[in-house]
């Protein structure tokens, strides 16, 4: 039991530092650039989704929720093109190390089969849900999925996700902020479990 508590406390401490950093960063002039950069990187190799900074920035200035969500979409879809390029031209050099780092070797083959059934839906599902989006963008390039399909599904999925998050904060920002402050430890655990669950969903929904 003590071991379990220790494992859970580690990501909580990490999340508290990340939360404090994002809240501070969200109030600087460079915040939009950081938001774009994180959204871009998460689409190909970065582990933390841009939602973390998007939430902090929107809570700091809820009137700009449309702008912040738009930056997230633009950064994420632009990053998807990088992920596609990695899978298409640099899989052995860059793509494979990323796949190995996230232990997605078996997933690559499963995605290849799933793309043959409905590539648009697979990409959309990953863009909208916690399923690791980077796995989709890299394998889309590896298996030669149509670039317009990738871009269209990504725009719809990412826009749906980020505008939903930012719009909810615009409407219920004060209540949500109070809940985050009060139940931060519990929400941190849920966030970590959500990231882990994304990989689980990817593994078991593409069979």
Sketch the topology as an H/E string, one letter per element. Answer: HHHHHHHHH
Distance between the termini: 34 Å
Mean pLDDT: 80
> Which blocks of ≥5 consecutive residues have pLDDT under 50?
1-9
Main sheet makeup: none
Supply the number of structural domains: 1
C-alpha Rg, in Å?
17 Å
- Beta-strand residue percentage: under 5%
- Helices, by number, come to 9
Total beta-strand segments: 0
Helix content: over 70%
Q: What's the shape?
A: elongated
Judged by helices, strands and strand pairing, the structural class is mainly alpha
Short synopsis of the structure:
This protein has 207 residues and is mainly alpha-helical. It has helices spanning 2-25, 31-42, 51-60, 65-89, 91-101, 105-128, 133-142, 147-182, 184-205. The chain has one domain (2-205).
Account of the 3D structure:
The chain has helices at 2-25, 31-42, 51-60, 65-89, 91-101, 105-128, 133-142, 147-182, 184-205. Helix 3 packs across helix 8 (147-182). The protein is an all-alpha fold. The chain starts with a helix and ends with a helix. It is elongated. It contains nine helices and no strands. It has one domain (2-205).
Fold blueprint:
Blueprint: H1 2-25, H2 31-42, H3 51-60, H4 65-89, H5 91-101, H6 105-128, H7 133-142, H8 147-182, H9 184-205
């Amino acid at each position: 039991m003590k071991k379990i508590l220790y494992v859970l406390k580690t990501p909580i401490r990490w999340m508290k530092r990340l939360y404090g950093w994002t809240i501070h960063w969200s109030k600087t002039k460079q915040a939009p650039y950081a938001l774009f950069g994180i959204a871009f990187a998460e689409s190909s190799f970065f582990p933390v989704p841009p939602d973390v900074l998007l939430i902090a920035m929107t809570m700091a200035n809820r009137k700009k929720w449309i702008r912040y969500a738009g930056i997230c979409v633009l950064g994420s879809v632009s990053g998807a093109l990088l992920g596609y390029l990695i899978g298409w031209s640099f899989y052995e050099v860059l793509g494979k190390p990323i796949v190995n780092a996230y232990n997605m070797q078996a997933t690559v083959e499963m995605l290849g089969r799933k793309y043959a059934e409905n590539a648009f839906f697979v990409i959309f599902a990953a863009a909208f849900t916690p399923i690791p989006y980077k796995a989709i963008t890299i394998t889309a390039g590896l298996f030669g999925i149509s670039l317009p399909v990738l871009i269209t599904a990504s725009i719809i999925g990412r826009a749906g996700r980020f505008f939903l998050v930012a719009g909810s904060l615009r409407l219920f920002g004060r209540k949500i902020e109070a809940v985050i402050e009060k139940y931060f430890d519990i929400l941190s655990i849920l966030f970590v479990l959500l990231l882990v669950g994304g990989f689980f969903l990817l593994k078991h929904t593409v069979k």
